[in-house]
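Appendix B. Chain record.
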Amino acid sequence: MIFSSRKHILAVFALLFVVSTTWAADLTPHRAEYKVKISVVSGQLNTELRPIESGYVAAHAVKPVGLSRILTDGRMKVSSEFTAEADGVKPVSFHEVDTIKDEPEVRLNFDWTTNMASGTVGADDVSIQLDGISHDNVSIQYAVMFDLLNDQLQDTYVLFDVDKMRVANVRNIGTKKVKTKAGTYEAVGIQHQKEGSSRVTTLWCAPELGYLPVVIEQHRKKKLNFRATLTNYTAT
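Structure tokens predicted for this chain:
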């Protein structure tokens, strides 16, 4: 009887150990607004992260503001559905419409049972075999946020670029105080750069906002060509 009780206690402890090692901190649903500068064009970036039954949907939209509307009346809207579990973020689907650059519309679905990404780019069908977890241009941000929350930031992430895979090298460049219209934050600088690319993207992520980037910068050949600064944030 005593032996049976001990077995029961050990089983309970074993279950608790499994639960504690597979638990992961969750992303925080939110809405955020950023002031954007792209070369000579000024704009506004609106982002939203909302939970759904299978995971999350993130939506990003950029539009010109002020005098920049004279230069372009285009819009960029991208959305990504993904899961976020103990083993990290996995994209499920991706949709992009970019009339600022007049790019073809992109629709993709990721099937992790077959490791295939398939969909359409404009009028063309695409189907590419995936070699491990790959991210679209939106889910990569939330993968970094999720991994920072769970102290499991990777050195490399694979980005899906429609026609091929690109490895993005990631590094932590330290912390600094960042002042924005939405507030002042002690932020962690995370840089990523695709192999073979001259563009370096830096996310200044605020731990108190679930590692949401409060400033996003992109340099090409050491010249700043994109900057987004947080102006408003609401946890939902």
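Further analysis of this model is presented in Appendix C.
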